[in-house]
């Protein structure tokens, strides 16, 4: 009986010890851009197609390269872990010019993806890529535009 009491007390102590303190500091909500850097707010907007349901379009990658040649060869210096549930991604970069490549795919069956102009049909990919310039202590906002 005494063992059950000790185990119960240990269990309650374990549960209450694992609750992290809540810090309500408004200064923590503001994102700080490191010195000599700028910020990119990338709005990875999924395209809307008349012939493809919205649940069939998925984000695959968001990658960054130093040059157009590196972008073409797939030599990226940074990749962002993208999700179908998150639309806005924020990344800090040193001041310079960069290239991005955003990729979506279609996972619908049959000819649905072909009708949506995805090359190769199911799991065909569409790319949106462009050049952008990061300025010191400024936030650049970019949006995807898939054709």
Describe the overall structure.
The chain is an alpha+beta fold. It has three helices and seven strands, in the order H-E-E-H-E-E-E-H-E-E. The protein has a domain of 102 residues. The strands form two sheets. The chain has a four-stranded antiparallel sheet. The chain has a three-stranded mixed sheet with strand order 4-1-7, with no helix packed on it. The longest helix has 16 residues. The model has no long low-confidence stretch (mean pLDDT 83).
Q: Which features characterize this protein?
A:
four-stranded antiparallel β-sheet, alpha+beta
The rounded distance between the terminal residues' Cα atoms is: 71 Å
**Topology, number of strands:** 7
Quaternary organisation of the protein chains: single chain
The overall pLDDT average reads 83
Query: Radius of gyration over alpha carbons?
Result: 23 Å
The helical percent reads 10-25%
Q: H/E order of the elements?
A: HEEHEEEHEE
Strand content: 35-45%
Uncertain runs are none
The number of helical runs is 3
**Largest sheet: number of strands, sense, barrel closure:** 4 strands, antiparallel
Shape: flat
Decide which structural class fits the backbone.
Answer: alpha+beta
Strand order, sheet with most strands: 3-2-5-6
Précis, in short:
This protein is α+β, with helices and mostly antiparallel strands. It is built from three helices and seven strands; from the N terminus they run αββαβββαββ.
């Amino acid at each position: 009986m005494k063992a059950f009491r000790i185990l119960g007390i240990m269990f309650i102590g374990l549960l209450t010890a694992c609750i992290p303190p809540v810090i309500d500091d408004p200064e923590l909500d503001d994102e700080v851009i490191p010195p000599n850097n700028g910020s990119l707010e990338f709005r990875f907007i999924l395209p809307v197609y008349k012939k493809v349901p919205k649940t069939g379009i998925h984000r695959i990658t968001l990658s960054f390269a130093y040059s157009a040649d590196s972008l073409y060869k797939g030599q990226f210096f940074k990749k962002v872990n993208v999700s179908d549930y998150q639309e806005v991604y924020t990344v800090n970069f040193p001041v310079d010019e960069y290239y991005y490549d955003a990729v979506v795919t279609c996972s619908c069956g049959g000819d649905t993806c072909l009708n949506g102009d995805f090359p190769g049909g199911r799991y065909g990919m569409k790319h949106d890529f462009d050049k952008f310039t990061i300025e010191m202590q400024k936030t650049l906002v970019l949006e995807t535009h898939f054709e």
